[in-house]
Amino acid sequence: MNVSEVSKLMDTILSIPGMNDPVKIDLKISRRQVLVLSHVIERGVTGKEGSMAGLLESLPKEALTELGQLSGECLQKAGLVELYEKLKNLGK
To answer: For 13-53, how does the pLDDT look when each residue is reduced to its tens digit (9 = 90+)?
Structure first.
């Protein structure tokens, strides 16, 4: 599928009734996984280190913002905000 087709498909899926309804997810993952997940989300949302994949290109700006907020919440709950920021600064 080309980028245009992926974009149309994602727009259709995101328009399905109920897709904006909140869902409670009980998730237990290691702190290591939280760090990796946050890094992956940030790379995808900011488009760093290469262009974003077709899926992320087709998401609305609000969805990307929500992903960033989710990443921040996970780091906060795991007590890793300060460590994550320090790790980011090491990579600069």
So the answer is: 888 999 889 888 888 999 999 999 999 888 877 765 555 55
Calpha distance 42→81 (Å, rounded): 13
| Largest Cα–Cα separation, the chain | 43
Q: Which of 52, 43, 54 is nearest to 11 (CA)?
A: 54
pTM to 2 decimal places:
0.73
38: exposed, middle or buried (Cβ count in 10 Å: 0-12, 13-18, 19+): buried
CA-closest candidate to residue 77, choices 22, 37, 48: 37
